[in-house]
Request: fold
Amino acid sequence: MADIPAKTELAVTTGAIRGSKKIHVGPLKVAMREIHLEPGSGEAPVRVYDTSGPYSDPDARIDIMAGLPELRRDWIRARGDVEEVTQREVRPEDNGQLGPDRSGGVQPFPNVRKRVLRAKPGANVSQMYYARRGIITPEMEYVAERENLGRARLAEYERDGNSFGAAIPDYVTPEFVREEVARGRAIIPNNINHPESEPMAIGRNFLVKINANIGNSAVASNVAQEVDKMVWAIRWGADTIMDLSTGRNIHDTREWIMRNAPVPVGTVPIYQALEKVGGIAEDLTWEIFRDTLIEQAEQGVDYFTIHAGVRLPYVPLTAKRVTGIVSRGGSIMAKWCLAHHKESFLYEKFDEITEIMKAYDIAYSLGDGLRPGSIADANDEAQFAELYTLGELTKRAWEQDVQVMIEGPGHVPMHKIKENMDKQLEACGEAPFYTLGPLTTDIAPGYDHITSGIGAAMIGWYGTAMLCYVTPKEHLGLPDRDDVKVGVVTYKLAAHAADLAKGHPAAKVRDDALSRARFEFRWRDQFNLSLDPDTAEKYHDQTLPAEGAKTAHFCSMCGPKFCSMKITQEVRDFAAKQNAPVEGFLAAEDAEAGMAAMSQLYNETGRELYMGQGDREHD
Amino acid sequence: MADIPAKTELAVTTGAIRGSKKIHVGPLKVAMREIHLEPGSGEAPVRVYDTSGPYSDPDARIDIMAGLPELRRDWIRARGDVEEVTQREVRPEDNGQLGPDRSGGVQPFPNVRKRVLRAKPGANVSQMYYARRGIITPEMEYVAERENLGRARLAEYERDGNSFGAAIPDYVTPEFVREEVARGRAIIPNNINHPESEPMAIGRNFLVKINANIGNSAVASNVAQEVDKMVWAIRWGADTIMDLSTGRNIHDTREWIMRNAPVPVGTVPIYQALEKVGGIAEDLTWEIFRDTLIEQAEQGVDYFTIHAGVRLPYVPLTAKRVTGIVSRGGSIMAKWCLAHHKESFLYEKFDEITEIMKAYDIAYSLGDGLRPGSIADANDEAQFAELYTLGELTKRAWEQDVQVMIEGPGHVPMHKIKENMDKQLEACGEAPFYTLGPLTTDIAPGYDHITSGIGAAMIGWYGTAMLCYVTPKEHLGLPDRDDVKVGVVTYKLAAHAADLAKGHPAAKVRDDALSRARFEFRWRDQFNLSLDPDTAEKYHDQTLPAEGAKTAHFCSMCGPKFCSMKITQEVRDFAAKQNAPVEGFLAAEDAEAGMAAMSQLYNETGRELYMGQGDREHD
Reply:
């Protein structure tokens, strides 16, 4: 793994996303993007949800070595319930500097905060704590503005969809956000030591979110690459990032990512704890784990994956599985439980962990360490035994007003997906569900972003609040930059398909604007409204590179001969010019005279029209 | 468009598909592929459905200039109900040699049959005709053997799934195939003039099939490319091909494809008819269309897309749509209806068309010319008005024992997909449904193989018999070779996900074999069992190129530190060595003594194990 001697290695992608302009809305200056359409089109600009942070703002000054501005700094301090403490001393083992192949390292982040925040003794700084006391925080107001995107145009839209019992309001008020957080149905993950983050909500009654995983491994990648991947992933729409780094330099890698991340960041603390004991699961202790939580809490991690549901009695339930335990965190705890033949210390010490979480407002992402790793193991006894324990732990966390979401599978055939959602809602009191896919078949390694995108869209429709992306490299290797983009865009479209099916009031705005652009041959508008304008234009140009082809009423699928959408225009003109309604047509069928008349009328109304565009579908 | 002077331009991909061997099963020598797994694994070879024809058989001699051997020749002639006639003379207009930009052309296929087959006067040679008279044809026997793939291992599998009323048998007999064809619930498209085709069935109670579209357009591609694309598409799993060529040389292009296609080929005859009248829809006549049907019937086209449901009174129903009419065939007929203000000649002459179909055993693919072209237009009045007309036409075709399938949308949000399936089953008497996607959102051009793969998997689960693929270039350009492969593999995995969810008895065989290979670090087996072994291995090698990494119990996701599946092995060994069942574990929790004993037992049973493999999922 290469060191990072020079700043130049830390190059990230900046600048406006093609065809869109960064805007900041309302008193809190909520970041969004606005896509302006062809002046002649008479179309209003389309506002889209934006996760890309300052990186896509041409006016922002980006300095990776300094980190992002602290958007939430004043909000946090104004509440008067935090105190500054000296950051825990970084130790060699925090970066895995022990044992074999532990030499080398990366340049520490140059702008580390020496003083960090913590709740005053006895205080609770979680958003849930405030919400339950009727306090509407700036974070909640920010979320309300962000989620209301496009709802101004609601009047144009008739709501339809099937939300399977979700309660998506026509308009999101700060009070609605507060209520959802108070009852645990949504979370706003934002550690007080991560003031760089732009608040967002994860909950069944908000837009479906997606997470992208990045991170070093002992065999590949480096910090520069991971920071670049983080910026790249949020550029294309990742709502949160998980740093799954293993191997060396975990602490320093995370510092670079935290200080430059405008989205919530999650981790799996057990990975780093394991590094601290040289990779021997049996040697893990509560003390080492607890120390790791504090270390990461002070760095600003927004949510922790904790596999506290992997209980000793459930471990043997996995013995008959085809793929046993596929979660790394789950397998580490299973090994610990077997080695000591003791109940998991994560389960036993759960309330003490919660005490730590509430002092920084870290949200739980209760890990499904026993999730199925294959179609064969889906929805089995081990999986659901753990899920019900996660439900029990959810209620215990809520007793201390700590935010919780629940992780879900994995590998599940389509007919078994809904059962996962139904059981989760019932067992976990509607705490947000956060699923990995699920993959709907095991036979397509190399295409698992798609096998899982299918399951993700479906479970998102059923009620999952956040979808964890899967890249084409799943099961095969570590994703590179291109894989990250493909994974993010795939999950973005799956999440949007879910919003449409749930009947999210404004989801259709973008689909309809793009469809109108397509129908009217506004190629540039079609590219700009898409999730990936660069790829859309590139594909178009592979067939018709000429600049003219982007404006001509002529398309690459059918050439200058066939017409479909233009004929529709003709149908409209014709229907408009003759006043007979549908019944008129029906009657006319039997009236030769009427036919002749109408035929003549047609011939007078632009019979000869330029034929061009066609949507090349299968016929 | 380039001519094809030299044979060398007609290069197609041949040779065994990586990791598999071509086999021919039973008296009819039904082609399948067999994937042999690592000798040490104790795993039986896995047989997979194979659409690639002789091209993937190293023992076959391939000569594109001569065409494929006539597998069904003797079966057809043995029935004694056909006669040889002289093929209709090819005219310049058959290749669009008139009007502007009509010069040039391609080399005619050198091995054209001068004599073609037709039913004897008054005879009906459709598989449905035979089926309804209790005759089991070799085609039906071939299909039974082909569909039974893997069912020999049924005993190992417990069936589950939700088939939404389909009736998938444990074992497919020739008699079952006959019954399904007789009642119109399945079709076996195989024109008597396409004896090169390997029989396959399209029906809700058989494996879900996929179609790939190819074809020239006036603006791009050439014959050599299209033949190569056809061979490439079936190599990766396309069950049928549609030749959607437009522009020049339609006749010759089709001849090259027909003579070299081992799968059924479909067309949209109205495209060629339109070329014959210089692209002026209004100038189309029944006589020109009829002549085109004969021309294509004699070449061996196996199914015709006929847009006979686009009736005059339905046309104005599309006027208020966001994207009007997106089907090219549909828009051509709509224009014709408006121009003459007459009912569609396809609807009026439907029974005469059926007369032609039964003389060659061509199946109807009743086109959905009014399908929605956007989320906004899904499930509207125009779409369903046409669907009910297609149901009426289905019954009229069945009166003459002609096989029928029904085309479906298109663009449909997830919550509106099932209504399409339910209405189709009801309106069309369970005739096979053949859908394009549907796309579940409009905002991801460049990724529409995925937006539609989601809808395809779902509607396949609900009962669609064949899924028409969509490539990444949909709406943007013409698919190249790589796009064709991505489209085919995406739809193959969607169809398989549907088979799993429907509870197809043997669908899990391949998933489980691959999952066991993954669990046991048999990398080669994992690659070979996948839908695309080349891509799976390539992705693996991008992270760990070393040859050793393909055999080592070590993976690229977690490196030599983390372990998940190996820990499961440990769990198994442990569970096996101690005889206490789950209850034992539960009790033990409260028994310190028991714990110590079990802990000691654990330490005696291989505590130190090699840590390597991990399925890098999100934690």
In short: Confidence is low (pLDDT under 50) at residues 1-8, 554-562, 579-595, 605-619 of chain A.
